[in-house]
Amino acid sequence: GLQTVGIFRVGSSKKRVQQLREEFDRGLDVFLDEHQSVHDVAALLKEFLRDMPDPLIPRELYGAFLSTATMEGPAQLDTLQLLLFLLPPCHSDTLLRLLRFLSEVARHAESSWDPEGREIPGNKMTVSNLATVFGPNILQKEKPGEKDAGALNFEDSAAIILVLQRLIEHHHSLFMV
């Protein structure tokens, strides 16, 4: 689905996403192949990240990660790297794999041409678009359903997007010891 235009942005079937989620929740072997809608699987991934009991970046580190948005250059990257080292191993490993995947999706944002000169459409999901979609699911101030959850102010939203952009763009060096 890397060439699917609007992956992670185009709507999905709530019914099919719910069915997939129930299959995963019951521990069934779920096969994601060409018979599944790319948009349904994308929506399920976003939903999974949003509804995790503990987000990939723990809530205790929310403020610290957001504070890096006002930094620039090496100081910002050094601080992000130190904060990433504070993550529990399971969170760190999962976040790294997610960031690698998002980076790969972003590499297919622009249209390209095959050897025969046919256009291969880009998915239009730039790093900025991906950070906008995934940022609130990875950096959460409150638990879903809590008072004020989802009611981010503009400054926090902008900072979340900027921080996630940096994480996607520099994941290869940020996770290097």
Automatic annotation (TrEMBL):
Q: Does the keyword Nuclease apply?
A: no
- Cross-referenced Pfam families: RhoGAP
Q: Which domain of life is it from?
A: Eukaryota
Return one Gene Ontology term, BP aspect. signal transduction
Note the SMART domains from the entry: RhoGAP
Q: Which PROSITE patterns match?
A: RHOGAP
In terms of InterPro entries, this protein maps to: Rho_GTPase_activation_prot, RHOGAP6/36, RhoGAP_dom
Give the GO molecular function terms. Answer: GTPase activator activity
Work out whether the entry's keyword set contains Transmembrane.
Answer: no
Q: Which UniProt keywords apply?
A: GTPase activation
The Rho-GAP domain extends over: 1-175
Gene3D superfamilies membership: Rho GTPase activation protein
Q: Return the PANTHER family for the record.
A: RHO GTPASE ACTIVATING PROTEIN 6-RELATED (PTHR12635:SF7), RHO-GTPASE-ACTIVATING PROTEIN 6 FAMILY MEMBER (PTHR12635)
Q: What is this protein called?
A: RHG06 protein
Q: What is the lineage of its organism?
A: Eukaryota, Metazoa, Chordata, Craniata, Vertebrata
Gene that encodes the chain: Arhgap6_1
